[in-house]
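FORM 7B: Structural annotation worksheet

SECTION A. Query
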Amino acid sequence: MKRTTWWSLRRWTNGQCWWAFAVLLFAGSAHAQSGSELRLGVLQVSSAEGTASAVSLGFLGVELERRTSIRADHRAAQVPLDAQRLMDFPLLVLATRSMLPELTAKQVGILSSWMSVGGMLLVDWQGGGGEIERFRVALESWVHALFPGATLVRIPKASVLYRSFYRVAEATGRLHLVEDLFGVQIGERWVMVVSFNDMLSTVHRRSDGRFSQDVLPGGEAQREQAIRLMVNLVVYALCLDYKDDRLHLDYLKSRRKWRLPDPTSP
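SECTION B. Predicted structure
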């Protein structure tokens, strides 16, 4: 099947996204007959990290097909910072253990334009606890360049990101260093989402099919939560705010018997 670009994937109305979610919810891993194949992409800061991250992101494509009816290419693309190819992707992942380079004017223009028209950047810090604050400061400089006046903020647990497909209580990854996602919101849309827990490494597998990375401290239960959260982020990037649709929320509450979190609670 010919892969469509994100332009066609993104132009779903709330009603269409509600229908798409119904397919995802009830069809499980079965392929939708008329679906489009999604290709995930790695925003490439350095060639070494870009290659490794693309392999891991391919395994996320496998998890998407296993858990939902999203048809996903198992070969993630590597997309340079200044490539116009960004416009082919609804979601790009920047997974790194290195400090971020300063953006050029051309890179700022391309990245900000892509986010402004619907792209979402998932930043996944893989460098552990010692350099988190230094990395956050470097990332803030990107945010200020891309969206003057914006800043990274803590994403509340009541956010649609925690319930766009699975119900997830907190952010986690290969490590459990920070219990929250952070991000940049433009209007009502999260255009950048940041994890400091190395989520992407939780899906990487060895040649024998076993997961290649240990997950600490929570083991396989923690891995499962990290994978569920990544699935949520992909679904959100495709459908945006469809989970705030009133009919959709009423349906889920009646079927799954769960209660929405109080947005006023800490």
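SECTION C. Observations
Strands lie at 37-38, 41-44, 71-72, 77-80, 91-96, 120-125, 153-154, 182-186, 189-195. The chain has seven helices and nine strands.

SECTION D. Sign-off
Analyst initials: ____
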